[in-house]
Each structure stands twice: as structure tokens, then as C-alpha cells.
Amino acid sequence: MSSNDVVSEIKRGYIYRLAELGKRIDGRRFDEHRPLIIEKSPISSAEGSARVKLGKTDVLIGIKMEPGEPYPDTPNSGVMTTSAEMGPVASPTFESGPPGEDAIELARVTDRAIREGEVIDLEALCIEPEKKVWIVFIDIHVLDYDGNLFDACQFGALAALSSTIVPAEKFGLGKDFPLKIQHYPVSVTFAKIRDKILCDPGLDEEKIADARITISLDENNNIRAVQKGLRGGFSQEEIKKIINMAVQITPTLRKKILEV
Amino acid sequence: MENIKLIDENGRRVDGRRVDELRPIKIEAGVLKRADGSAYLEWGKNKIIVGVYGPRELHPRHLQDPTKAIVQCRYTMASFSVGERKRPGPDRRSVEISKIISEALENVIFTRQFPRTSIEIYIEVLEANAGTRCAGITAASVALADAGIPMRDLVPACAVGKVDGQIVLDLVKEEDNYGEADIPMAIVPHTGEIVLLQMDGCMTQDEFYKALDMGIKACKQIYNLQKEALKNKYRIAEVEEIDVDEAVAGGEL
Description:
The complex is a heterodimer. Chain A contains 5 helices and 12 strands. By secondary structure, chain A is α+β, with helices and mostly antiparallel strands. Chain A has a single domain (about 5-260), classed as Ribosomal Protein S5, domain 2 (2-Layer Sandwich), CATH 3.30.230. In chain A, the strands form 3 sheets. In chain A, strands 1, 2, 3, 4, 5 and 6 form a 6-stranded mixed beta sheet that branches. In chain A, strands 10-9-11-12 form a 4-stranded antiparallel beta sheet. In chain A, strands 7-8 form a two-stranded antiparallel sheet. In chain A, a hairpin with a 7-residue loop joins strand 1 and strand 2 (about 50-55). Chain B is of the alpha+beta class. Chain B has one domain: 2-Layer Sandwich (Ribosomal Protein S5, domain 2), CATH 3.30.230.70. Helices cover about 30% and strands about 30% of the residues of chain B. The mean pLDDT of chain B is about 95. The chains are: A alpha+beta, B alpha+beta.
């Protein structure tokens, strides 16, 4: 275990005191994300890809597609599957080997935002009912972990999918075509530190957070996915406040993801 | 399948319930001999058994926390608990559920009283019909109390969702599969805090708040059932009063 896993008592106290004054260690407002830089299609061997830098957090998302069998209960739908790699390259506290519970939660929360937000029309990915459909693999590679992987990965998955070209020619299924995007849900994660709620927690903020919540909103501000984490709780009023903050924040982020 | 009607014109659901009605719930505390604490729960067609161990020394030792106990939950579905056989062993879904349940229960456990130890919660889903994570957490907190682990409250849980455009409580399988949204949630009744909250589907903000209200109300109902289960287990059997005169006359004394 690395010492990076621990936030010193002094720093913890400093974050608490700043929060009382409405401030954060990197000078951001409570409702302000770190600078977001999205690079589309950095990987040419993937059908679609995106590299997202959210402050110093750095993730790469690649999309691969191939024909395969549909699930028996959805014979006319394509299949989407999401996985996340959190290897030692991204943090001294990450370990090699099969995905741990953090990586599994990250993949599932990203998957839920994309799936429930109906980003892709899975029925349009049916090649031959009951026999052959497109399988979309969303693979997340965390390169540098500096807090809030949830948002970085969701933005990245959305950007990568919107740059995806379905490789039909490679499989003798006609001409290649761009993957159609139906909706643009955007997820925002908040950390609760004592009684303060701040969006896009950085590494130290995330480490000392009592509770965490990720809200995914579509273009019409409908709620598409929620995931609460850590041992702390939220009151009903806090949930309302968080959703209102998310409503304020998501349009700018969505614009930023789309304009790439 | 899309046109399946889940609520009829009289407002009755597939199993005859009203929109804000829970399925029948039965909780029994202390059902296992070897576990430190346990509970059995039937919630509609869900059948769940929970065993709790601890606080006990945590192995491997490098996982120990010198300041507090580690709360480890493992949620497992039996291979025969669902229609199509589930491959035994942890899948990604159960890993995620185990993680969020551990976090939610840690909220109420006085972990700092037991440094370097682990408190282990084994949730076994024997039969599943939607809402198993909520049923699991409800039973788990009864099992924790049965194990005598100091807690500041129990944690009742329930799911709320949206079916045929209406907000409904405690979804069954058909409603979960063909409904429009599902929100599993758990609260700490004493403080009103929400300690487990997930959502998938599509809801307006107003619907979401309405669902939260409905869920919290139901959690409070379930809370009473949890307390009742513990009282039933630990109620001291009333001592039968004997009439001394009669006993003497009858030759019993």
C-alpha cells in the first residue's frame, strides 16, 4: 500500500476549513468542474475512441465492434458491454489483475448512464434477428487517477461512441457507416464533505468525502441514472439541491463534449 | 412485449396490489446456529437468508484498519434462484451490489469500537423476484443487530419505480423488466438520511422526488417489521403464574 492512499490530517483540516468559507484547495467554486479537454479518435485501430482529461485525471475510452449473437431475451437488439481497467499505471494504489470492485462499479455506472440514456439505438444494430447483431465493446482505460473517474469516463464513452464508425466492410456486411447517436446524457458526480456538497471532486476531496453521488441527466433534464456511494448519507433536501446543481452544470458540459 | 399492461383500469398491478402497496414481508431473526447473527426474510417471492460474523480478527492482516472495523458484505444469488440457471460465483452485478450494501450498512455500525477487525455479512438470495438488494439490506441489518453489533439504527430498504407512467412501490419482476424506471433505496430512519440510492430508467425531476417520498414512507413501514422481528426473537417468555393454593391442593408442591 502506498502512502498516497492517505490524506494527512493537516490537509484534511485545511479542506474542511476552506469548505466552510465556500472555497476549495484548487480555487474552484463548489459547482465548477476542472478544465475538461476531450480529444476525439486518438486511436486509429479502434472503431471509435476518446481521450478525456478532467484536470489531471486522464482516461482513454476505445470502442470496438464485431458481429455476434444477440441475447435470447432481446433477439432484435445489438449488445453493449462496458469494462474498465484500473491498472498500476494510473495510481500507486491500483493493482494488476482482474478488475476489483472499484473498476466494476466504474464500468457499471458508465454503462448505466449510456444504456439508460439511450445513447445508441441498439435495435438499429440488428443484422439478422435472433442470429446476428452488432456487439459494441466500450473499454475504459484509466491512465492517470486524480479523482472523479465517473464523470471522465462517462464523457469519454459518449465522445467515443459519437466518433464510432461501424466496421461493416471488414465483416462483409456492406459499407461502413457512422454509429447513430440518439441522446446525449451527461453525468455529474458530487462529493459530500461534512455538510458541504461539491461537484467533480479532486483526488484529496474524493479521499476524504463522506458520501458520493452521480446523477445522469438527458437533454430534457430527465434523470436517467443515479448512483450513490460511500458510507455517508444524503437528506432529501440535499438530493434536491444536487439535482438542481446538476441541471445548471450539465448543459455547458454537454456543449463541450459535443463541440469536439 | 412493449404493449404489456402492467396496471389495469382499476389501478391494480399484475399481482393485484395498489401503486403504493408493499408485497407481504416476513422477517425472522436468529435462524442460524453457527453464525454470530442471522435473519431470514420473505418479501413477496423473494427468499433471503443472511449470516453475520464478527467483529473478528481480519485476515489477511494487511487489510486491517488500525482505526476501525472493516464492513464486508457478500451478496450471492443461488444458481436456482432465477428462471434461467445463474452461473455460481460472483458476477459483476453482485460485486457492485455487495459494495454499495457494505457502504450503506457501515453508516450505522460503530466501526471505531472494533479496530483491526472485520464484520462480515453474507447475503444469500435463495429465490429472487426483483428487489433483492433491498430485501438483502433489510435482512442484513436485522442479522447485524441479532449478532449484537453496536449500531445507531437499522437500515430498511425498498425499491420504487415507474410503471405505465405511474410511480409505484416495490416492483415485482415483470414491472422491473418492462417498467420505465427503478430506484432501489435505503434509509437511516432515525436521521432520515438516504444511505443507498441508485436509479436507472427515465424520470422527470418531479417524478423522482415523488418516488423518493413514497420510498421513504415505505422504508419506515419496513423499519417497524425489522424491529418487530428482533422483539419476537428476544422477547422474554412470560412466566406462567401459578396459583400456590391450587398447586398445594393438587399435590404439585
